[in-house]
Design goal:
The complex is a heterodimer. By secondary structure, chain A is an alpha+beta fold. Chain A contains 18 helices and 14 strands. Chain A has a five-stranded antiparallel sheet with strand order 4-3-7-6-5. In chain B, α2 packs parallel to α6. Chain B is elongated and about 80 Å long. Classes of the chains: A alpha+beta, B alpha/beta. At the A-B interface, β1, α2, α3 and α6 of A face α1 of B.
Chain lengths: 635, 208
Amino acid sequence: MPLQQKEGHVSSSVEARAAALFAAHTHDIHKRTDRLFAGLMALQWIGGILFALWVSPLAWAGSTSSTHIHVWAAVVLGGLISLFPALLGLLRPGLPSTRYTIATAQMLMGALLIHLTGGRIETHFHVFGSLAFLAFYRDWRVLVPATVVVALDHILRGLFWPQSVYGVMVANQWRWLEHAAWVIFEDVFLVVACLRSMAELRETADRTAALEQEVRIRQQAEIDARNSEARSDAILSVALDCVVLMDESGRIVQFNPAAERTFGYTASEAVGHQLADLMIPADQRGAYQNAMPRYLKTGEAAGTNQRFELTAVRKGGEIFPVEVAIAPISSDGAAMFAGYMRDITERRRSEAALAEYTRDLEVAHDTQRQNSRQLATLVDQLRITQRRAEDATRAKSDFLASMSHELRTPLNAIILYSELLQENAEDGDAKQSIMDLQKIQSAGKHLLALINGILDLSKIEAGKMTLARETFDVREMIDELLDTVGPLVRKNNNALKVHCAGDVGAMSSDLMKTRQILLNLLSNAGKFTSNGVVTLEVVRRMEGAQIFVEFTVTDTGVGMTEEQTQRIFDAFTQADVTTTRKYGGTGLGLALVSRFCELMNGSVSVVSRPDEGSRFTVRLPLEAAPAEVPAVIGA
Amino acid sequence: MRFPFHVSAFFESKTRAWLWIATAVWLIATAAGLSVLWAWDNAPGEGATAPRTWPTGTALVRATEKPTLILLAHPQCTCTRASLAELAEALARATVRPKTYVLFLKPEGFSDEWAQSDLWRTAAALPDVSVIRDDSGSEARRFGVATSGQTLLYDEGGDLLFAGGITGARAHQGDNDGRRSIVALLNRQSPARRATHVFGCPLFSAGL
């Protein structure tokens, strides 16, 4: 809040408080006076009755008497006049209507008393006394109804019974003005007195409000000062640095707990002593003692308001390094100094250790730089070697591809001609040659399959294998496949079970390679299982946002060891050398399965135990890559 | 209990209305009471039928060298105090001091102490005033007086100069025509009136 606005706010609040105090005091005066008048009314009533009983108890007619009408008037009329305003004074004190009614009643009571006293002129003083008493309200307005009642009383009685009020039988019709004028004459003084009294009351309220405000401000200032001091003490007591306050002569006036811990003195031991005597080594005291008077004289001091390091001395005489900052402060006009000190012994040790460590690190860094250079050289050599190996592999694949092609042409001719010869032999007489021709045909087909496998593998490794995507029904593909592979599986007296889930439907992929994968897996299962069961399960699986078709080929055959399963997808590899001898095969089937799966963004895995059979799981995307692009699979 | 604003406002307005009504009733009743009181105080008593000449048979002795003044009063009537005060005032103002009698009624069956009340003593304290007990009101009847405070003034020759009260109202002291007339007559001046209303207690009970 801006200062001007704040001052305005304070001023208005003081004015409001003064107004409230004034209103409260005024109301209190009105209430108190109302109650006084309530009592006075009762007293006047009783007094009137007693007076009537004393002066005119009886009215006589010859020898007979009766209660005097003045007694009845004192009782009934006096009660009527007194009780209503007295009740208002007790039940509704402080209200304007109450005091106006009381003022009216008081004057009516005056009229009654004047009457009861036989119009004695002395009783007229009741009117003036009552006006003075009404001035207790300090509200000049109450004099108005009182004066009006007096004037009306005089007007009416002057008109009808002038003798009762003026003491003459015939009075001038304006004589009431003379009486009213005397009443007003008194009113003038009373009004002035009321106004002055209210002005004084208002002034008192203003002063009281101002005083209250000042007291509040002072109390708040004291609270703020106490809080500030408490905060300062709390900060000093928990400060990790030593804080020492000194007066202008260098004498310690405050010594915080951190200083006690650091220097070994208690606060009571340190306070009152010269800082130089307690905490500065003897050989440095001279500089300190010269600096202090210079600062006091010129206001200049080297090192104030900045940090610097020097040595200090503990209670036991131990010299230690400290970081110091000295700030001049002012307290009640006197120059003081706050010294902030930190024991930096540990820091110095750490700095020394850090310097040594840095040196070691630099040596290690040099060594590492040398090793890095050697490593870079080795990496370069390795890259060259790898490039050469890749070139050799590509050359090998190219060679194999071309060689396989060159080999297949004559081999197809051999197989074809051996089939023709076999047909001729069956048709002719050379039936003894059939067996030999079948062996040639069988060996040729085996060789052709071997060459085809090598050709496919070489294409893959040479990056020349492509995918031919088409949409086909999986169940139909399985059915067609079973026609081919079923006899192979059942050859060793195995049972073939196929479970194809109803929701598999169609997949969009390379039909030939999918069929080749399943053909290889099922033929392997049939080959390595005797009198067992070969199962093909086909299900659709959801993995993340992609849908796969999962083919699982399970057999109850010879199974494999853990080590064998790790090598089974390598080219030209079978479980072991005895396998080749016992079961035949080229060792290319599973390698092709693995390569085809990778090519089609799928996967193949195997779980197997010796003599318990194997389970191969192939997972292929329901939707293969859209474009027929050459796919390169690392060898 | 704190009422909602409209409820408290309703009761406040009702209270204010009742207060106004009560105040009005109070003022009217008070004015009426005071009016009754004033009317009673200013109601004159029965006037005198005083003989125009000094009556024979009276025990009172008329002065021949100065006027004779007779004031007949009831010893227990509070109005008598005002009449005595006015008498004292009149005598004080008169240049010719009349022979003055104050007769206090003593009905039959009442003691002397009853008749010789403090008013008796007040009258007796007045200079040159003879205070006489009027047993059974015989003198009052002789002078044709029926109301306490009736004052009669006869001249040296026994002729009636004035008959009336010397107060302006019952028990009220102060300037009045009766006193002023008597003072005028005693001072050999023309009186404003020779008869005035008398304000006081009846000297005789009804029917007597």
